[in-house]
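Notes from the 1:1 (GR / supervisor)

We went over the backlog. Supervisor wanted to see one worked example end to end before approving the batch request, so GR pasted a single chain during the call. The sequence is below; no edits were made to it. Supervisor asked that the structure be written out right there so they could see what the output format looks like.
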Amino acid sequence: MTMCRVLNVARAGFYAWLHNPVSARDKDNQRLLTLIRDSYSLSGGVYGYRRVHGDLNEIGETCGKNRVSRIMQLNLIKAVRGFKAPRRIAGRPSVVGKRTVRAVLTGMCYSAGRTTRQGRSSLTRLTGQSAMTSST
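Structure output shown during the call:
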């Protein structure tokens, strides 16, 4: 038995592969890979496959975005994520309020305590008086 029968391939195809193991598509992919790496490095590693595909179209290359995506995935070329500016965290004031400044300047400090059985306020002054009781 010949090897072509065992592998279930045509003899002409086997000898064509033997003399030229790299296909034309693989050669074209290697050429595209150098262009993709150039575009990626010029962008500072920020561009993904969509923008790299746009760059290739600008220089006159005709290829699909899925092909660019596949070549980038196979060669572990990824876009840098998280390039946005940091945002303000909701709920935290960016400016100190007037009451806080007044309390610090006048020396009025509050400590957080637990609610008592009588239902009084949980904020008590360090002087020991309850915030709910009036001085009248």
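Supervisor's comment: The first strand starts at residue 110 and ends at 112.
Batch request approved.
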